[in-house]
Amino acid sequence: MASQTEHKHTHTQTQTHTPSTQYDYDLFVIGAGSGGVRAARMAAGHGASVAIVEDLYFGGTCVNVGCVPKKLYVYASQFSESFSGAAGFGWNVGSQPTFDWPTLVASKDKEIKRLQSVYDNMLSKSGVHIVNGRGTILDAHTIKVADKTYTAERIIVATGGWPFVPDVAGKEHIVTSNEIFNLAVLPSKMVIVGGGYIAVEFAGIMHGLGVEVRIFERGDKVLRGFDEDIRDFLMAEMIKKGIKFMPHTNVDRIEQVGTGFTVHTTAGETVATDLVMYATGRVPNTKNLGLDNVNVALDSTGAIIVNEDYQTNIPSIYALGDVTNRVNLTPVATAEGMFLVNKLYANKSGIVDYENIPTAVFSQPSIGTVGLTEAQAREKFSDIDVYKTDFKAMKNTLSGSSERTLMKMLVVRSTDKVVGMHMVGPDAGEIIQGFAVAMRAGATKAIFDSTIGIHPTAAEEFVTMRKPVG
Q1: Domain annotation covers residue 469
Q2: Which end of the chain offers a freer environment for a tag, N or C, measured as fewer CB atoms within 10 Å?
């Protein structure tokens, strides 16, 4: 936790809501991740009396064991290729560069501690009462934390997700994305089990830091649900870098051997390694919250079921973010928090539009995507034109790197509307973010064609694609 004390401050905001006198608080938020913090702050800003409880760390997964440290580690891992490519530009970096893992971990910890303090201060200054501990629901209006109980007119559950690890013999030997950032020692070789975005991101990170990486994937390729060209292209680029893939592979058991491990597959193969990381998905964090005390409805994955207003089957209890297992992205959780609070305490209507949400995978090379995949587009429309380009980035003409970039655009021929954009290459997320605005505004291919590109950039390729390839 970022704070070891409770805070309560007098509201200084202009009140647009008349606080209830029947309960201790108008709103009690369980979980101080991105969605919960945004909801708590905004509700307090509208004059509501608000409390928030957190039992682990302020900022949730994103700040502590997700987006933020992951991106910092991506930056760290990219220096190895920068050093090797510098000679082509006239730089002599001298002897073999060395990397110190404890320094990276310490630098990351310092930044996360700063961000935790920022969240703590934002909540305190907003007038939100911070409670430390595990919050459990006793009834529709009561929350228990340790030996204290609190009542509230409304409760928001925003407890996020948690890494899922299947039952496998030797499960006690593995690490997940929760532990990978703080390893005592950087391994020389590792096995990553899983083929989702977390698996490919950490494969790139660890490979860039000098670790020999092998990915076990139960299917034939990584990133199920992404555009097929993107999946194939990324795997090919990762293999070129030296990352090894073992498709159609399932783990039978993990055995400790000395200071390392032997991974036994169901096919009878064995792989010796220093570290085993499971990146086999995440599940809603709904256990031990007291949801069964009030019979809050959950789906088969354990996610809280909510309506279009983020309300559960218990009228006073709401849920948002990853705990509802819909679009599990930090900015989506914050948008849901804003929508809900505006509706409850500011009498503002509106919806969170889940169409054309841009996203990125910080693999190496990175992925940026918005809109439909080609398979989705062809299922929805009968007249799809596919525009695609594959090239070596200008930087790599001198660096000596063989890495290539892929860009792809999907257009409905009859309306000329762009319905999907995908990219694999440096800064893909930065590039797709801007184009996502154009797509949400309904831009047509003609609009893209009439837009003058910035030269020389990779992004200009999206406005110079002239002939469909399919």
Answers
A1: no
A2: C
